[in-house]
């Protein structure tokens, strides 16, 4: 039985690409807003218990989003993304890297390339996120880093479970 | 005991070991030197990682080195689980945000 709002993830190792599909019970214009405005992004981008805080966001071609995700221990992970190929209410692309709070990119950290597509389906909206890596090594690095950034949240919960 | 990649990466010390060895192959002693834990404890973690196929052993002269088998981590499905969990958390937050936006709109 497949729930309507199931998150579907597929991987294409040959092309170093991960694809995430999800339907949302809201019209396209609202979903687009939630993905592109900082006050809304800050409310959902960080998986719990992490808290997302945007330092700056300019949603336009060549504009950047600098944000930090703060964990329960108070430590923040900073990320910077740069937008391109914005096609309003249809799709946009972005690069994403780890950085410091001033937005200086950590040269050792892998860069991810995002393409987010939006499609109206009646009163609902389908969002398809493609995350790709230039180098296989970068994709491996993301995995080998122990799923840092957002992944830590999920693993933290698991640590608690296993400690019981 | 169940030995899989998900279990391997569930422990913070093992994640640190993965992160160390992913940079360069290391002898068990060099790994142990980086931690405030007994050699036995580190050796136990290394064995779990090796059992899960994440580390492989290479003998060079009189020393043996552990190297990271990242492909193993990529091949199995389980490595996607934390990633999926992250997106599901994120999207359930987004569901609430959208729900609020919708009710605001209808309220007007």
Question: In brief, what are we looking at here?
Answer:
The complex is a heterodimer of chains A (about 160) and B (about 110). With about 160 residues, chain A is an alpha+beta fold. Chain A is built from four helices and eight strands, in the order ββααββββββαα.
Question: What share of residues are in beta strands of chain A?
Answer: 35-45%
CATH H level of chain A: which superfamily?
START domain
Q: At the third CATH level, what is the topology name of chain A?
A: Alpha-D-Glucose-1,6-Bisphosphate, Chain A, domain 4
Total number of beta strands of chain A: 8
Low-confidence stretches of chain B: none
User: Which class of secondary structure composition applies to the elements of chain B?
Assistant: mainly alpha
CATH top level of the largest domain in chain B? Mainly Alpha
Feature tags:
heterodimer; A: 164 residues; alpha+beta; eight-stranded antiparallel beta sheet; 23% helix; 41% strand; disordered C terminus; B: 108 residues; mainly alpha; Arc Repressor Mutant, subunit A; 2 domains; two-stranded antiparallel ribbon; 6 helices; 2 strands
Summarize the structure in words:
The complex is a heterodimer of chains A (164) and B (108). Chain A has 164 residues and is of the alpha+beta class. Chain A contains 4 helices and 8 strands. Chain A has an 8-stranded antiparallel β-sheet. In chain A, strand 4 (64-70) and strand 5 (76-87) form a beta hairpin. In chain A, helix 1 crosses helix 2 (38-44). Chain A is globular and about 45 Å long. The model of chain B has no long low-confidence stretch (mean pLDDT 82). The N and C termini of chain B lie far apart (58 Å). Chain B folds into 2 domains: 1-76, Winged helix-like DNA-binding domain superfamily/Winged helix DNA-binding domain (Arc Repressor Mutant, subunit A, Orthogonal Bundle), CATH 1.10.10; 77-108. With 108 residues, chain B is mostly helical. Chain B has helices at 5-8, 12-23, 28-33, 39-51, 70-75, 80-107, and strands at residues 55-60, 63-68. The chains are: A alpha+beta (164), B mainly alpha (108). At the A-B interface, strand 2, helix 1, helix 2, helix 3 and helix 4 of A face helix 2, helix 5 and helix 6 of B.
């Amino acid at each position: 039985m497949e729930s309507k709002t199931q998150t579907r993830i597929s991987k294409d190792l040959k092309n170093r690409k991960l694809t995430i599909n999800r339907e949302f019970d809201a019209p396209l214009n609202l979903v687009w807003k939630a993905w592109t405005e900082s006050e809304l992004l800050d409310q959902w981008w960080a998986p719990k218990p992490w808290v997302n805080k945007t330092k700056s966001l300019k949603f336009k071609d060549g504009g950047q989003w600098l944000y930090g995700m703060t964990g329960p221990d108070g430590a923040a992970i900073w990320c910077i993304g740069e937008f391109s190929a914005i096609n309003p209410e249809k799709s946009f692309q972005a690069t994403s890297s780890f950085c410091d709070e001033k937005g200086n990119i950590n040269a050792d950290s892998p860069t991810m390339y995002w393409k987010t597509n939006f499609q109206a389906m009646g009163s609902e909206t389908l969002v398809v996120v493609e995350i790709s890596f230039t180098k296989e090594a970068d994709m491996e690095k993301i995995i080998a880093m122990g799923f840092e950034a957002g992944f830590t949240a999920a693993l933290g919960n698991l640590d608690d479970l296993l400690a019981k | 005991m169940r030995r899989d990649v998900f279990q391997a990466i569930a422990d913070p010390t093992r994640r640190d070991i993965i992160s160390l060895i992913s940079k360069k192959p290391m002898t068990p002693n060099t790994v142990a030197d980086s931690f405030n834990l007994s050699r036995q404890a580190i050796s136990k973690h290394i064995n779990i990682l090796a059992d899960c196929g994440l580390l492989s052993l290479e003998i060079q002269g009189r020393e043996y080195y552990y190297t990271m088998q990242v492909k193993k981590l990529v091949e199995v499905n389980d490595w996607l689980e934390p990633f999926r969990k992250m997106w599901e958390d994120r999207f359930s937050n987004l569901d609430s945000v959208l729900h609020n936006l919708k009710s605001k709109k209808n309220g007007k």
